């Protein structure tokens, strides 16, 4: 990586100082164990019809985890690895119980994709330094040997039942009843801020984004010896991406990093880190335009900037949008306000507020972790409780341990 210092910092646990392991190191990989979401919903639907008023969970309890990223995948694995009481004759079938000795939970992990994506390594996939299976191993392989069920589907909504569990709705029109829900749907790029950002820019947040980026860069290279590439957004993500593109194909791209802040890259980071990153970008011939605020992007790569109050138009062959992230669901705050539904999708959503135990304040059987979660600071949830606000893999990873 062009950012050894930055990578060392971001890949090291902020609490323990322990470097994070890549999934192929930390998880066992062998043969296949996946069930379709349709099978799952058939199995669990019968249980959901057992009664209306539910104050105790089923035995075994049904835990549904939506989102199989750092937070969700590791929650499933932690839960699976816990020491559960052996099933008794009275708890071998799906039934309610008042006993505290719950059998091993029925754990279901739902994700829209079939691969876990180790996002910090996506840049290495772009530069060709890492292989697809290393960066994004199949859930089927990662979950083999566990009792975790996997459903590949997009979550379209969640219906809550007061003081109880609820139902996760999927885009294949099946549903998964649960006693406990862990929401770990992560973030998505925020592209509604500026006209054209969504329709005319590439983003870099998912495996599909990496594929689209490689295709666009290859096409640009085929058309021109030195294509011009703009990366909008001077945060860590924009700086990393600009550096990765600058090193791709033997420095074949003319890369410009457009930073809104007049002081340049990563304005909220410590000065030592900023100096280091600025030095790396200089060595890679990345042009850093500090104080360049993008006001619109057109389909032909024309970027309109406000630069020191003056409007300016520049044309690029490829434009990346790395200026902001937002939660993957909306309006997640409805859970906190006591509504009984959790629609998924849309733009401009606030994060899901949770109390310091990571439970949604109005639904104690709903937990949220990772990028999508924010600990309430207005007193409803008991204050910030000292939780990190940063949206990082380490935070999601550590929260998975805690929530399990
Ligand atoms: C390019 C890049 C580089 C990064 N580098 C670093 C780094 O070096 N260090 C660091 O600490 N952090 C880094 N991060 C941030 C880190 O990856 C995130 O903070 C972390 O992944 C958050 O984990 P999560 O579980 O909340 O969400 P994610 O890991 O994003 O997982 C969310 C999952 O939910 C699924 N999903 C979303 N919506 C739906 C739906 N409707 N239905 C079903 N499934 C859905 C997605 O498919 C995804 O698998 C980076 C992020 C990016 C994008």
Describe this structure in words.
The chain is an alpha/beta fold and 404 residues long. It is 27% helix and 24% strand. It has 13 helices and 22 strands. Helix 4 packs parallel to helix 13. The two termini are 33 Å apart. The site of flavin-adenine dinucleotide has 34 residues, from helix 4, strand 4 and helix 13.
Short description:
With 404 residues, the protein is an alpha/beta fold.
Q: Shape from CA axes?
A: elongated
Beta-strand content: 15-25%
**Total domain units:** 2
Largest sheet: 6 strands, mixed
Kindly identify the CATH topology of the largest domain: FAD/NAD(P)-binding domain
The pLDDT mean sits at 79
Arrangement of strands in the largest sheet: 5-4-2-9-21-20
Q: Specify the CATH homologous superfamily of the largest domain.
A: FAD/NAD(P)-binding domain
Distance separating the two termini? 33 Å
- Provide the CATH top-level class of the largest domain: Alpha Beta
**CATH architecture heading of the largest domain:** 3-Layer(bba) Sandwich
Number of strands: 22
Please state the structural category. Answer: alpha/beta
* Fraction of residues in H or I helices: 25-40%
GO cellular component, one term: chloroplast
GO biological process, one term: phylloquinone biosynthetic process
Organism: Pycnococcus provasolii
Keywords: FAD, Flavoprotein, Oxidoreductase
